[in-house]
């Protein structure tokens, strides 16, 4: 696992653009807006408050997937309690799926969340994304019952929760 720094902005951008191109409906971000961002905007995203991680092939710069921990809301109106963090942008390249990359990314993120005193982890997944929902349920996430209809779509974001310590691998 590699913690992304502002010097990693190009690999971060490449991963984000690839994930948005492959699965545009799975994320909040707009692919066209992401493609139009400048290097300075990518660096600013990495600088905070999100913590970004990448799964990389050992000893190389090859990025297999990524994830981010959001300790503050998307907007000032979206308040996150002090003991909670939001998981965003989990994505693994298709050729790396089925190899435990998601579990390792979630383990590393859970450790950071616990270090920050944010053991209550939440995430949102589109209700139509059955593959993601099955992954999260297999890992122990449970639906909270909170739903947020997606603008311009017939689906909703479904919130899932887990205690960070339940994601830790031995």
From TrEMBL:
SUPFAM superfamilies in the record: Acyl-CoA N-acyltransferases (Nat) (SSF55729)
One Pfam family recorded for the sequence: Acetyltransf_1
GO molecular function, one term: acyltransferase activity, transferring groups other than amino-acyl groups
Origin: domain of life: Bacteria
Occurrences of domain N-acetyltransferase (ranges): 1-165
Gene3D superfamilies given in the database record: 3.40.630.30
PANTHER family, per the entry: AMINOALKYLPHOSPHONATE N-ACETYLTRANSFERASE-RELATED, AMINOALKYLPHOSPHONATE N-ACETYLTRANSFERASE-RELATED-RELATED
Name of the protein in its database record: N-acetyltransferase
Organism: Brachybacterium saurashtrense
Lineage: Bacteria, Bacillati, Actinomycetota, Actinomycetes, Micrococcales
């Amino acid at each position: 696992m590699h913690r992304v720094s502002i010097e990693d902005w190009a690999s971060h951008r490449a991963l984000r653009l690839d994930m948005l191109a492959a699965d545009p409906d799975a994320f909040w971000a707009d692919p066209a807006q992401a493609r139009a961002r400048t290097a300075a905007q990518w660096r600013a995203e990495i600088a905070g408050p999100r913590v970004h991680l990448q799964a990389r092939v050992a000893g190389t710069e090859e990025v297999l997937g990524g994830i981010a921990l959001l300790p503050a809301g998307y907007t000032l109106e979206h308040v996150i309690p002090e003991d909670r963090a939001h998981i965003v942008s989990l994505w693994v390249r298709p050729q790396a799926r089925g190899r435990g990359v998601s579990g390792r990314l979630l383990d590393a993120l859970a450790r950071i969340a616990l270090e920050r005193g944010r053991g209550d982890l939440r995430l949102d997944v589109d209700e139509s994304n059955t593959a993601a929902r099955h992954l999260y349920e297999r890992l122990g996430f449970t639906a909270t019952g909170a739903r947020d209809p997606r603008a311009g779509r017939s689906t909703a974001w479904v919130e899932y929760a887990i205690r960070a310590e339940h994601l830790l691998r031995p």
